Amino acid sequence: MTAPARRVSARLGAIAPSATLAVDSKAKALKAAGRPVIGFGAGEPDFPTPDYIVEAAVAAAREPRNHRYTPAGGLPELKAAVAAKTLRDSGYEIDPASVLVTNGGKQAVFQAFAAIVDPGDEVLLPAPYWTTYPEAIALAGGSAVEVFAGADQDYLVTVEQLEAARTESTKALLFCSPSNPTGAVYSAEQTKAIGEWALEHGIWVITDEIYEHLLYEDAVFSPILKLVPELADQTIVLNGVAKTYAMTGWRVGWMVGPMDVIKAASNFQSHLTSNVANVSQRAAIAALEGSLDAVHEMRTAFDRRRQTMVSMLREIDGVVCPTPKGAFYAYPSVEGLIGRTVRGKEITSSADLAGVILDEVEVAVVPGEAFGPSGFLRLSYALGDEDLAEGVGRIQSLLAE
């Protein structure tokens, strides 16, 4: 007998589902069933999109020109706005023609790897990492090489670690600061050293800057191309409006890079999705050209919640929580809890612990296994102050038993 034909391709069958979305989905399902679940899973602001952006979208929806196809690579006005915003926020000039507007930051991530990675290429991936990166690398035919920095290093990898992981097959480095999932922020000195190392060895840098405006205390956004401008010919910058302007559902991101790479990715996108929804692009123009006042208000709230969450997590015996300086996540190490028994269940991993926390006190957190090694939890503090205190309080009570 012949073997049955494969129904799902090996390429897509190998993709792991998004752990963060899975946790969020389970929490929402329990909530819909009437359970008092508090979810720390999803990485999205709990604020509405600012009014002036929504009004721009309403006006755009009434304009017939937005009811038609537009250039696959993005509206010229939005590309110009991205260039102006890059000069304002990052301090260097780019050509609007080097911008490709994508359906959210995720499409930019996927297309960046697809544009430069071939089968056999290795991509250095500092861990803990955002759950989508390794899947996008694998879909491009590459291999992710994890470079792990734990809580003792504030989750920041060193040039020495990167050099130890480099081989003749190393094609690129994924760099994310401020970081999802840890909230870690590389200093200008650390960023410059990594950029110079990549330049010396001819390694591409894919830098994800989507959390650039969410910084706290003494942390400063340090764009790698501002610090090492010579890297421009081997760097792809990823960004979008989702996190800064509370626009996760509008699906507007972009990638900026050398013209040959952007041309190849634009050609790919012309077959894959064509243009991003025009109403969303018009809203993004309003966001980028408007004031950052609403952004600063959101950041003030995130900072307050950050301090509350970190302080409460540190009260739990066995938990070590470095201070996140960016984004809206805390990433405590729970390695000190592995081996304990909680309500009759032995904890052998952070996935076990997350399961017990959800089952016993109805709080959803994402286990470290989604982002690299076991032994950690990710909690987003992009939710209301009362829910945050209640949720972390339940975890405190459970683990104090």
Question: What attributes characterize this protein structure?
Answer:
three-stranded antiparallel sheet, alpha/beta, globular, Aminotransferase, pyridoxal phosphate, seven-stranded mixed sheet, 401 residues
What report would you give on this structure?
The chain is of the alpha/beta class and 401 residues long. The chain has helices at 10-13, 19-32, 51-61, 76-90, 104-116, 132-139, 159-165, 188-201, 224-227, 259-272, 278-289, 293-313, 350-361, 385-400, and strands at 38-39, 99-102, 122-127, 143-148, 170-176, 204-208, 235-240, 253-256, 329-330, 341-342, 345-346, 363-364, 366-367, 377-380. The strands form 4 sheets. Strands 2-8-7-6-5-3-4 form a 7-stranded mixed sheet, sandwiched between helices. α5 (104-116) runs parallel beside α6 (132-139) and α12 (293-313) packs parallel to α14 (385-400). It is globular and about 60 Å long. The model has no long low-confidence stretch (mean pLDDT 96). Residues 36-395 form the Aminotransferase class I/classII large domain. Its EC number is 2.6.1.-. GO terms for molecular function: transaminase activity.
